[in-house]
């Protein structure tokens, strides 16, 4: 029996500025609107590192440096693919902030996040980004329901 499975790899990056603010994106996507971190899909034959650098640049105009893997999110799609989101964070970047077609990007104080309209499950994911004791966000499917687990 093969242990291989189809998978989709994506990323998100929490970028922090020298004032302790974090960069958020107000996504215009109908399937997952609201504030989140920039990121996107890993392309075929692309390293995870290069993918997160590219995605952040495409969506924000910033070139990040030294992104550190700080956690993951995963779940099974309806097509039985494992959907994996690699969580990165960095405070090193260059460039000028520019919004993209994905949505407006701007800096916010971290404590403000809880009073803003974030994407579904973003605040739970945010816990992984900021906690050194957490590393995984997992959606388990049970009887056509989703059970969120954070480890």
Question: What structural keywords apply?
Answer:
single chain; 151 residues; 6-stranded mixed sheet; mainly beta; 3-stranded antiparallel sheet; Nucleoside Triphosphate Pyrophosphohydrolase
Walk me through this protein's architecture.
With 151 residues, the chain is mostly beta strands. It has one domain: Nucleoside Triphosphate Pyrophosphohydrolase. Helix content is 15%, strand content 42%. It is built from 2 helices and 11 strands. Strands 4-1-7-6-10-11 form a 6-stranded mixed beta sheet, sandwiched between helices. β10 and β11 form a beta hairpin. The protein is globular, with a radius of gyration of 15 Å.
Arithmetic mean pLDDT? 95
Which regions have little confidence, pLDDT < 50, spanning 5+ residues? none
Classify the beta-strand content into a percent band: 35-45%
Q: Got a strand count?
A: 11
Radius of gyration: 15 Å
| Shape summary | globular
Helix content: 10-25%
CATH homologous superfamily classification = Nucleoside Triphosphate Pyrophosphohydrolase
Helix count, DSSP H or I runs of 4 or more residues: 2
Integer count of domains: 1
What is the CATH class designation?
A: Alpha Beta
Major sheet description: 6 strands, mixed
Structural class: mainly beta
